[in-house]
Amino acid sequence: MFVHMLSGGVPRGRAIVIGGGSGDGDGGFVEPPAVTTTSSGDTTIKGQVKPGSFGKFVYPLATITAGRQYTFRYTPQFSQLAQQGKLAMVGFGLKNSNDFHIVGLRGNGTTGLNKYKVNGTPPNGWNKDSGHTTSDGGASANGTQAGPNYIRLIISADGATYKFQTSPDNVTYTDEYTGAAPTPFSNVSGVATFGIALWFNNADAGPFSIVIDQFADAAAPTGDPYWSNVVLLCGFEGADASTTMTDESLSAHALTTFGNAQIDTGIAPPFGTSSLLLDGSGDYLTTPDHADFNFGTGDFTIELFARTAVAGNNNYLLVQAGAAPNISYRWRCNVTNQQDVAYSSNGTGTNNLVGAIGGVPLTTWKHLCFERSGTKLRLYAAGVMDASSTTIGSSPLFDSTAVLAIGTSSTTTGFNGHLKEIRITKGVARYNNDSGFTAPTAAFPRS
Question: What are the chain's domains?
Answer without folding.
Answer: 24-219 (2.60.120.200), 227-426 (2.60.120.200)
